[in-house]
Amino acid sequence: MKLDFVAIPKNEDWGTGDSLRYIKDKIKSHVIILSCDIISDFSLKKMLNYHHSRSSSLTVLLVPFLKSLKDAEVPGSKKKCKFERDIIAMNSEKKLILINSEADFEETVPFKLNILEQNSEVKVHSNLMDAHVYIIRKDLLDFIIVNEHISTLKGEFLPAAVKKQFQGRKLHKPHPYDAQLCCDLNENFNLKNIAIDLTTSKCSTKTEELICFAYIDKKCFCTRVNTVVAFADINKKISKNFSLMGVEYVKSHQFLKSQVDADSVLGENCELLTKSSVKQTSMGSNCKLDEKAKITNSIIMDNVIFGKGCVIQNCIICSGVVFEDNCSLKNSIIGPDQTIQTLTKLNNEILHGSDSLMEI
């Protein structure tokens, strides 16, 4: 496979649409858009086959919304995390009728009468998640390139493309001879030869219908790690999903089952002293738990030291933090390289590191 990496100018605040315009000359056919924050085992091959078999202009991967995210507590916040649902409507053939964010509507979701007349059965879903995986046909990609106001795919392009299906327009499929004709017009050319070539060409001049489909995969594992709560959730599930990253995880047997449960992952050179325990936690390398320290449902990065009797619940602890004895933390985020003094008690707090700020 030949890969071509193109760097986006670092000073530009671009959306995906802007980035596609930047590399437009490199795109010759269908384009696959994969978000960099997705973790999934869905079959891209099956999605591609589905896209081509439907002669789809746009195919969108939809997956069930993870229930674990709905009930999760957000470290560092006293409020429950609010998730913005996608409102997605499709007909019986999974042709997309509507795909918008819940925030785009108030109390009702409007549908035009002519759309309902064209589709005898329309189902509206609010429990499916747009995974930000798209396959776009070249002629629809040209729509993004021409319309420079389109910056984002999710918020601007998708609703516009789905709506465009019902505007009575078709995307013209350029005749393969068009490029040659344009070139010849700038040089010496023979009209008779051009006429003969156009007449005898076997290439189709038909227009292609703009049509958008949903590809639904309810069996795959799929999550987008684009929020703090999603980051915490996937780390807590990491021991069961190592295969998604092509890594074979072999659990260490150096710790007693009473100290480290089956849902926890510990990095190299970790040390647990008497009566300390780690439950439902992902822990980095070179961490140390003193006597009776208890870590539950948390993410611990490298080189963290816990003093005697520390109790940590549902927290994110960055690298290099030192906890003195008998600290108690719940639902909190601690930035890197800090010392938490003896008997400190924190609940729903965020402590930034001294050298940098954390984006929440």
From TrEMBL:
One BP term from GO: cytoplasmic translational initiation
Molecular functions per Gene Ontology: guanyl-nucleotide exchange factor activity; translation initiation factor activity
Entry annotated with the keyword Protein biosynthesis: yes
Main location group: cytoplasm
Domain EIF2B subunit epsilon/gamma LbH, chain residue ranges per copy: 257-341
Subcellular localization, as worded in the UniProt entry: Cytoplasm, Cytosol
A cellular component annotation (GO) from this entry: eukaryotic translation initiation factor 2B complex
Domain of life: Eukaryota
Subunit structure: Component of the translation initiation factor 2B (eIF2B) complex which is a heterodecamer of two sets of five different subunits: alpha, beta, gamma, delta and epsilon. Subunits alpha, beta and delta comprise a regulatory subcomplex and subunits epsilon and gamma comprise a catalytic subcomplex. Within the complex, the hexameric regulatory complex resides at the center, with the two heterodimeric catalytic subcomplexes bound on opposite sides.
Family under the similarity heading: Belongs to the eIF-2B gamma/epsilon subunits family.
PANTHER family for the chain: TRANSLATION INITIATION FACTOR EIF-2B SUBUNIT GAMMA
Name the record gives this protein: Translation initiation factor eIF2B subunit gamma
Gene: EIF2B3
